[in-house]
Amino acid sequence: MYNIRNITEDLIYLGCSDRRLALFESAYPVKDGISYNSYLLKDEKTVLFDTVDKACAEQFYENLEAGLAGRKLDYVIVQHMEPDHCALLSEVVSKYPEVKIVCTVKTVAMIKQFFNFDIDSRAQVVKEGDILNTGSHELQFIMAPMVHWPEVMVTYDKTSKILFSADAFGSFGAINGNLYDDEVNWECDYLSEARRYYTNIVGKYGMQVQMLLKKAAGLDINMICPLHGLIIRKNIGLFVEKYDKWSTYTPEENSVLIAYTSVYGGTESAVNLLAAKLADKGVKNIKMFDVSMTHPSFVLAEAFKYSRSSLVISKSFLDASSKSISAILRTSIGCVVFFENLLSISSAVNFIILINFNKKMDNAQYFCYDIFGYGKYRYNKHGF
Which of 255, 250, 154 is nearest to 206 (CA)? Predict the structure, then answer.
């Protein structure tokens, strides 16, 4: 059964949601599911903006057929080549053999690697600032490499003032009837998942996101249509502000995040004491995670939010949680690490290491403090 939604009089939402998926990209928990968004513009020419994941194939084909209502499909705009957005491209070409594929030159190369159909005869390659006239609409293409794949572009409808933003401004979570951010309590109920999506999917590409934001600043945007999550039409300014903070690694809140592991409880006691001392000094809204119980994607999202991040690790737990720990370390701006004394449980902490990363997160210096009074040590890639 098809399920399409009118966004404007000539723009239709064709997307669908997967609520059975446990891990998005086999990596990120999505307890509220995930949406795969696709859009159909019905002007003098018909234009499909991306496809969806194979998990939603049947629903998508029914939606596309209903949306076209007997018309042929003239264009598919491929903004992003991840399989959750392009998986059905070959099938679309088979169903609509006259369709033209609008994409970047890098996308053409990737299509040849992903699929077997003849892309050269169908490709309409575009570059920065090119415009596709579909009748009453002018679609302008804006390159967005590494947000978050190298071939990515976004599309601005100059007529409707809608930005089709690819994976930018996306979020985890299924579409639950309400399609727009102003139909829900977006800041309270959805912003945290938008943050977790950004920090884990796009977070390392801050410089590239900044370049896209500078381009978008010159556009008059009334609506943002991402490939995941709600359509944004009320909180555009707030969302752009958050993206600016996240992409410049600017904290949203002046507080402390403490993430720890503890095998026998010694480290946990230490971090509880640390949190209490911080609270006594006036630090508010302290956040604590036991990383053996909390997926690292949630910890990373909070690390972007808080001005100080502390990672507290039990030495004997390093191997067991190495993936979680390394993932957290890659994004933590400032970390505190405690190692439990394995020889004497009563001596819970041997020393403290303060790790400070620069904003590019490609250089670390380790400052070691022996709490038994043996001195302060500094460690970097050259050693102590």
Answer: 250
d(CA 193, CA 173): 7
Query: Which residues are 256's β-sheet partners?
Result: 308
Which residue matches tokens 């890098």?
Answer: 106
**Residues 367, 356: contact at Cβ < 8 Å?**
yes
Among 326, 330, 384, 331, smallest CA distance to 353 is for 384
Q: What is the pTM of this model?
A: 0.85
Tell me how far the alpha carbon of residue 149 is from its chain's centroid. Answer: 12
Residue with tokens 């920090």: 199
Residues of the chain by 3-state class (helix, strand, coil), percent to 5 = 30, 30, 40
Let me know: does 67 contact 12? Beta carbons within 8 Å: yes
User: CA angle 225-63-136, nearest 5°?
Assistant: 55
Closest CA to 38 of 1, 12, 73, 10: 12
Query: Angle CA(258)–CA(34)–CA(61) in degrees, nearest 5?
Result: 165
pLDDT digits (tens, 9 = 90+) for 145-192: 999 999 999 999 999 999 999 999 999 999 999 999 999 999 999 999
Cα 114 off chain centre by? 23
Host H or E run for residue 187: helix 186-189
351's CB contacts (< 8 A; 6+ apart) are 338, 339, 368, 369, 370, 371, 372
What is the distance between the alpha carbons of residues 67 and 89, in angstroms, rounded to a whole number? 17
SS3 183: helix
> For 199, which DSSP code?
I
The tens digit of pLDDT for each residue in 328-349 reads 555 544 444 443 333 332 233 3
Encoded tokens for 151: 């071939």
Tokens of 113: 């690697």
pLDDT value of residue 358: 38
The counts of H helices and E strands in the chain are 11, 23
Q: 267 CB contacts (<8 Å, ≥6 apart)? A: 260, 261, 312, 313, 314, 338, 340, 348, 349
CA 270/CA 325 separation, integer angstroms: 18
Residue range 189-201: mean pLDDT, rounded = 96
Kind plus residue range of the DSSP H or E element containing 272: helix 266-280
